[in-house]
Please model this.
Amino acid sequence: MENATENVIDANEVSVCNTWYTIMVMSNLEDKIRKLILKKLDIVPNASEFFYEALMPSQIVTEVKSGKKTARVKKLYPGYLFLRMDMFTQEGELNSDAFYFITQINGVRGFVGGNAPTQLKNHEIEQILEHIQQFQGKETPKNKLNINDVVRILDGPFINFQGPVSEVNEATGVVKVVVSIFGRDTPVELESWQVDKSAEE
Model:
């Protein structure tokens, strides 16, 4: 399963380039286009002189269906990829090789800014990188849980039991649910994907 750490294509780690641009791509083809960029990088001579990195920020979303845990990749910015590259010469002119290297790839709709690509501001790319760091290596339940939410247990020895959430640990993805066992309220520790909000709530 792909995660945020695999969204990085680093073609030249020693590059000091820190200019980022946004491209618009066809929906649901984000990862395919990211891979096409990497493939083209190996084919086009000197492309590594102006292209360095591509990001497709994503998170892994989990849910339980028919008693089985499923996971899927959810794009944080659907329809967009973020590229670290040199788009302009030192004289401020558009580098046509860099521009067409990207725009001639099938599925790419163009740069934000059109024929004059707009560079992302520092705080914008910093926010994107923070999102990647936030979701790196973590699974996120489809339904966010809060304390006192009434949930139904979907997996494990207490399957189909219902009760309120008494504790949520977002860092570990663990929740505590209070269920009635032999007439006594008992806290049960579960992973968040093992429960779902009750339809009766």
Summary: The longest helix spans residues 30-43. DSSP finds three helices and twelve strands in the chain.
